[in-house]
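Hey, can you fold this one?
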Amino acid sequence: MSIPLLEYKPSSQNQRVDGYEVPGEDTPYIYRLEDCADQTDITDLIWAAYRQVFSEHVILKSSRQTNLESQLKNRAITVRDFVRGLAKSETFRSLVIDKNSNYRLVDVALKRLLGRSAYNNEETIAWSIKIATLGWGGFVDALVDSEEYSTAFGDNTVPYQRRRYKGRPFNLVTPSYADYWRDREEESRYKWGDINNFRDLARSLSIKMVEFKPVSTENISIPDTTRKTAPTGTPASISTAAGFPFR
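Sure. Predicted structure:
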């Protein structure tokens, strides 16, 4: 039996009230499946979904989910199911889920799947319990099948950041890992001249202790260095006067 979602009070974020701003360059372009007239439009919609769910940082050829793309192009699945599949993909798991805490995952999922930030810490805690009890797949289903998602996007609209006033879109400012993992990557990175490098080198050295060995002088033979024959030739003078004559 799963734990029901804890109650929390939604705050009055701007996506919950009617807007009065004039549409401009900050107004998001809304991609709907019913607006797609040909395969080019569907391709644009697919890439919009990639940008929203995977973010701009990880849109790579290796990240593509070709099976989901094929089903969406053939209208075998809805945009809602396509987004659900992207969030449950192995690529998303390796790039986002495995590198973050449940609190961070709630923040990322609400921004990318519901197009808004968490209302408060109470909502973050409530959804993090859902991740702990239902797993990531059950948590994604709970968000995508929620009344809020249905009201905001329905079956055939790609999620987007709803009514932002300032700052860039969420998918441009939320990297795959949180500050904790970023700091750990920085700490483990090799840095030239870092004192830790020398500490590691000193710890890796194998030190051999010097063993004291007593030495006996009984059997030591001292060689004879005396001359047996007289020296030949002209003897050298060590007289100061011979080497440095006076005038």
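The radius of gyration is 38 Å. Let me know if you want another pass with a different chain boundary.
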